[in-house]
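Section 4.2 – Deliverable D4.2 (structural model, holo form)

The reporting period included a commitment to supply a predicted holo structure for the target in complex with 5-O-phosphono-beta-D-ribofuranosylamine. Inputs used:
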Amino acid sequence: MLMSSSKKLPLGILASGRGSNLQSILDASQSGQLDAQVAVVISDNIHAQALDRARKMGIPAVVCERSHFASKEAFEQSIVKELHRHHVELVCLAGFMRLIGKTLLTAYPHKILNIHPALLPAFPGLSAQSQALDYGVKVAGCTVHIVDDRVDHGPIILQSAVEVRDDDTVDALSARILEEEHRIYPQAIQLFAENRVRMEGRHIKLRSKGET
Ligand code: GRF
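Output (structure tokens):
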């Protein structure tokens, strides 16, 4: 079913830090490029800049600190409660520095996205851009994928390649990759808003626009 233009897909964004990907989603939503709107931003870090970005745009910003909960399960349950309270249908990790566990995966099956600053399956995990430079690749990039129970592993929705320059530094390469992140994350979300994402195993097939 194609979403009617009046119904915007409600997003929940989980972010631990700077929140530039969150900003790109907020901007795309505000400018009407996205048939989705951020319903809530949740952070595990009370100092996350992402929280300020949300508040500035009048979007609920919630802190769920891991240390306030006895178990990972209880921590995730509190996140799920917030997501449900805000009627979230798609969850987007945007620099959320925690592994997603069973509680969240069960509450939002195949409805949690992540962006990773490498062309997966190359360089999963932390410091992907410096992993890529150290390895000596000529092409780096970023990936939007569905989250599963393994790190940076689930089905790939979109990728974008970025050329590595001979004189590249981690900062310079990261900045060029980030530009691509800000472009493809909203694009991937729009595919969900248009209900165009079909999963066959770990393969994502895109329905054409309007196809049911
Ligand atoms: C991005 O590089 C993203 O790919 C990775 O974490 C970083 C978050 O940056 N998962 P920001 O907080 O969105 O600015």
